[in-house]
């Protein structure tokens, strides 16, 4: 039996999950020590309870997908609205190197998936489903390509397999990033963990120099905003989402068709820089940060609330083997390639945590991973400049190109 929660009840449930996650991280030393993001901690408990209820009584809840999508789009719009071209130059060569590193991993991810699928005697395209289509691509890409693989390549159940693999990736991406970064930081003595008192003092200290922070850094720190700039910022978000909705419909079926969240991000970049450069409008970064961080937390909570863990139980044995191998590959690549290529310093460790997030799950997971690390060890401006733009925009374009090239060999 299924129960449907409307937007109001879905929002209430998401807030409860976030409060639960905050309580667990504060009370359970293991979660705090290994930097598990609060939405992941609370969301996994909720998903486990949902699984138990479904297994015992057969009940399940359908949450409002529209609200979840809206918060996701607001988060990506906030990335775009934070992308001041003058600041983006700070990413510089590091952004290019990280993009090359990420692009290389997408190829590795697909090679691992296809090779294992072939060795296990199943269709190689199933390995692609358990590769960058779902792990780097996430649920949105899984849905789009699942339909194509079913109709054009004859892979039965590709959509269901894709959604289950993306679900697995979302969970694992939020679990392995924090512990991996902590291991790297401690092994190489890159930073000292802050005490609870230091963290509390920082978070309660009013942010009077917002320009010192990169977008999404220190989400718990107090930021002063007024009703006027909050309303103005909400209007900017509305403009970004309206642009995304229009461009999604306008570009459908054309060569420049892109996912809605990419248009939301692009709209934010355009709006921010046109207002600042041409009309000399002051942009309220503090308000953008507040709404962006709130949307990120609520989106992750709703995504984990909507997980149907019983779908993972139904995964075939070979697919479980492939996904386990992908998890190990991601962790090893982040530790021995991403971390070393990016400089083997504190920023590189935070970037490795972010790479685990969108390499196995999604960009919001990557940002949450980095927030969990920087909350404990201190800021990483470089990581918060590079990862959101790379994970939200460039990765999807690179991933789509790689998938298209691979599929040409199976046509």
Automatic annotation (TrEMBL):
It is found in: Cell inner membrane. Pfam families: Glt_symporter. It is a multi-pass membrane protein. One of its GO terms (cellular component) is plasma membrane. GO terms for molecular function: glutamate:sodium symporter activity. Catalyzes the sodium-dependent transport of glutamate. PANTHER family: SLR0625 PROTEIN, SODIUM_GLUTAMATE SYMPORTER. This is Sodium/glutamate symporter. It comes from Acinetobacter baylyi (strain ATCC 33305 / BD413 / ADP1).
């Amino acid at each position: 039996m299924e129960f449907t929660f409307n937007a109001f009840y879905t929002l209430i449930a998401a807030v409860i999950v976030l409060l639960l996650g905050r309580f667990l991280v504060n009370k359970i030393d293991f979660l705090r020590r290994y930097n598990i993001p609060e939405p992941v901690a609370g969301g996994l408990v909720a998903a486990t309870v949902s699984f138990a209820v479904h297994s015992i009584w057969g009940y399940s809840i359908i949450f409002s997908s529209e609200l979840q999508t809206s918060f996701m789009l607001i988060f990506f719009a906030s990335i775009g609205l934070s992308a001041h071209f003058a600041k983006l130059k700070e990413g510089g060569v590091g952004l290019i190197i990280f993009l090359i590193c990420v692009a290389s991993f997408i190829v590795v991810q697909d090679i691992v998936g296809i090779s294992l699928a072939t060795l296990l005697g199943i269709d190689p395209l199933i390995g692609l489903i358990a590769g960058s289509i779902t792990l780097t691509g996430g649920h949105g890409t899984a849905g789009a390509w699942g339909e194509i693989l079913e109709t054009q390549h004859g892979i039965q159940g590709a959509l269901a397999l894709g959604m289950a693999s993306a679900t697995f990736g979302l969970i694992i991406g939020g679990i392995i990033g924090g512990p991996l970064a902590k291991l790297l930081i401690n092994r190489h003595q890159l930073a000292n963990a802050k005490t609870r008192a230091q963290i509390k003092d920082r978070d309660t200290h009013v942010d009077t120099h917002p320009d010192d922070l990169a977008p999404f850094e220190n989400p718990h720190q107090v930021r002063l905003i007024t009703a006027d700039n909050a309303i103005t910022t909400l209007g900017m978000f509305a403009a970004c989402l309206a642009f995304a909705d229009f461009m999604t419909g306008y570009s459908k079926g054309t060569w420049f068709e892109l996912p809605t969240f990419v248009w939301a991000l692009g709209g934010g970049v355009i709006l921010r820089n046109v207002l600042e450069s041409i009309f000399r409008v002051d942009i309220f970064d503090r308000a953008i940060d507040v709404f962006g961080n709130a949307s990120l937390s609520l989106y992750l909570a709703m995504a984990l609330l909507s997980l149907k863990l019983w779908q993972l139980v139904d995964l075939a044995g070979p697919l479980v083997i492939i996904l386990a191998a992908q998890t190990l590959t991601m962790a090893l690549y982040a530790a021995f390639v991403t971390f070393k290529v990016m400089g083997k310093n504190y920023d590189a460790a935070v970037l490795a945590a972010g790479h685990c997030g969108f390499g196995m799950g999604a960009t919001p997971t990557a940002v949450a991973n980095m927030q969990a690390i920087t909350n404990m060890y201190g800021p990483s401006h470089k990581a918060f400049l590079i990862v959101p733009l790379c994970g939200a925009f460039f990765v999807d374009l690179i991933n789509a190109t790689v998938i298209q090239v691979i599929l040409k060999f199976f046509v």
